[in-house]
Design goal:
Length: about 425
C-alpha cells in the first residue's frame, strides 16, 4: 500500500513539473541549488575530526545560515523535508555554540533562546515532512530519533525561558514568553517529534508549558479573553487546575460577574480543603455571594465551617452568617451564630459585642420584659469581662435600664450616653 502511495505521489510531482513554465522550472532549480549550496557550506564548516576540523568554523557557517532562511518560505523548497533537515543541522550548531557562551556571559542568552527556538521548530518540521516523504520506514525512524535528540534540549531551554518571561512587567518580554511557551507546549505535547520521547519528567514539562503559556497570555494586554480562557482550559486535570480557575476568576471579577462566580466555584470544587488556596477561594466566593445571593452564601458558609474548622479565616464565615440572619431580622439565630464565633475566636473584636447587640435588637422587636432582661444580662457580662472597655457596654446598659424604668441602675451609666 505504501508503494502505491509513493508511486501516486511521484506521478503527481511529475505531472506538476510537466505543467510548469520554463521560468518556474528555472526558479525551482535555483531554489533547490540554494539548499544544496547551504548544505555544502555547512559540510565544509561543521566540526569533523576525520577531515582535520576539530571545531566548527562559524565564519564559514554564517553564510549557510543566511542562505537557508529564504528556502524555508520559498514555494519550491518549503515543503521538502531536506530543506528543513539542512536548516536544523545548521541551527543546531549555533544552539550548541550559544549554549556554552550564555553560561559564561548572560548577554548571549537572547542568541541562545533564538537558536533554541529555531532548532526546535526546524527539527519538528523536518520530522513531520520526512515521515511522509521517506521511502523506507527504517530510515524515517532513524532520522526521527536523531532529530528528536537534537530538538529535546532546545525545547527545554524554551520552556525555562518562558517561566521567567511569563510574569514580566515588560510587554515585549511577555510576548517572548508566549512565543517560547508555545513552542515548548507544541513540541512536548503535540509534535510527532516528541511523541515517543521517554522521560519521567515529560508530563510535568507539558504541564509547565501549558501553565507558562496561560500566564503569558493572561499578562499580555493584547490577548483576548477567549485566548486566555482556552489556554487555562488546557490546565484542567493538571496540578495547576485550581490556579487556572483562580486566575480566570480574577480576570473576570470586574468585567463579567457570572464568569467570576463560575470560576470561583470550579476552583473550589477542584481543591482539597487541606490545600492553602482553598480558604482564599472559599472566602472570595462567600463575600461575593453575600452581596448577590444570600441563599448560596449560606451554603458556602456551611462548607467553610465544615471543611475549615481550624482555619483562622473561618471567623469571617461566622460573622457573615450572623450578619445575614441579623439582616433577615432573625435576631435569635444571629445571636447564636455570633456567640459561636465569640467562643471559637475570643480575640476577634468584630464578634465581641454582636451577641449582645442581637439580643438588644430582639428585645426592641418583641418588647418583652424577659427579652429586655436577657439583653441587659448580655451587656452586663461584657462589662464584667471588659471593665476597661465601656464602649462595649456603657451606653447600651444606660439605654436598656432607662427604657425598662430601672432608673437607679441606669444612673452609673449615664456618663457613657451621648444623645444622637
Amino acid at each position: 500500500m505504501k508503494k502505491i502511495i509513493l508511486a501516486c505521489a511521484l506521478l503527481a510531482a511529475m505531472t506538476a513539473n510537466a505543467q510548469m513554465t520554463k521560468e518556474e522550472k528555472a526558479a525551482m532549480k535555483e531554489a533547490q541549488s540554494v539548499v544544496k549550496k547551504a548544505q555544502s557550506t555547512y559540510n565544509g564548516a561543521v566540526k569533523n575530526e576525520q577531515s582535520g576540523r576539530k571545531e566548527t568554523n562559524f565564519e564559514k557557517m554564517d553564510p549557510a545560515r543566511e542562505m537557508i532562511k529564504p528556502a524555508l518560505t520559498n514555494q519550491y523548497t518549503k515543503d521538502d523535508a531536506h530543506t528543513w533537515q539542512v536548516a536544523a543541522d545548521i541551527e543546531y550548531q549555533y544552539y550548541l555554540k550559544y549554549d556554552v557562551e550564555a553560561k559564561a556571559d548572560e548577554s548571549r542568552k537572547p542568541l541562545l533562546l533564538e537558536a533554541a527556538y529555531n532548532t526546535a521548530n526546524y527539527c519538528m518540521t523536518f520530522d513531520n515532512l520526512y515521515q511522509q516523504q521517506a521511502k523506507k520506514p527504517e530510515e524515517a525512524q532513524a532520522q526521527h530519533k536523531r532529530y528528536q535528540q537534537m530538538g529535546a534540549n532546545p525545547l527545554l531551554v524554551c520552556l525555562q525561558a518562558a517561566q521567567g518571561l511569563s510574569s514580566s512587567d515588560n510587554q515585549e518580554e511577555v510576548k517572548q514568553g508566549v512565543k517560547y511557551a508555545t513552542v515548548a507546549y507544541n513540541g512536548l505535547a503535540k509534535s510527532h517529534l516528541m511523541s515517543d520521547f521517554e522521560n519521567p519528567s515529560k508530563a510535568d514539562w507539558i504541564s509547565y508549558s501549558k501553565a507558562f503559556l496561560a500566564q503569558s497570555l493572561s499578562n499580555l494586554k493584547t490577548a483576548t479573553d477567549a485566548e486566555v480562557e482556552a489556554a487555562y482550559a488546557e490546565l484542567v486535570g493538571t496540578k495547576f487546575e485550581s490556579t487556572a480557575y483562580q486566575a480566570l476568576a480574577m480576570r473576570f471579577k470586574d468585567k463579567n460577574h457570572d464568569k467570576y462566580v463560575e470560576y470561583l466555584k470550579k476552583g473550589l470544587a477542584s481543591l482539597a480543603p487541606s490545600e492553602p488556596v482553598y480558604a482564599n477561594i472559599a472566602i472570595m466566593l462567600m463575600q461575593d455571594q453575600y452581596h448577590n445571593d444570600k441563599k448560596a452564601c449560606l451554603e458556602t458558609i456551611q462548607l467553610i465551617k465544615q471543611n475549615l474548622p481550624d482555619n483562622d479565616n473561618t471567623v469571617r464565615a461566622y460573622l457573615m452568617e450572623g450578619q445575614i440572619y441579623f439582616d433577615q431580622k432573625d435576631y435569635k439565630k444571629a445571636e447564636q451564630t455570633f456567640q459561636e464565633a465569640v467562643e471559637k475566636y475570643p480575640n476577634e473584636t468584630e464578634a465581641i459585642t454582636m451577641p449582645a447587640k442581637c439580643a438588644w435588637q430582639n428585645a426592641l422587636t418583641t418588647n418583652k420584659k424577659e427579652d429586655t432582661q436577657h439583653a441587659i444580662d448580655m451587656f452586663a457580662q461584657l462589662e464584667q469581662k471588659y471593665p476597661d472597655s465601656p464602649e462595649y457596654w456603657g451606653e447600651a446598659l444606660y439605654i436598656l435600664y432607662n427604657n425598662s424604668n430601672q432608673l437607679e441602675k441606669a444612673k452609673p451609666y449615664k456618663k457613657y450616653y451621648s444623645a444622637k
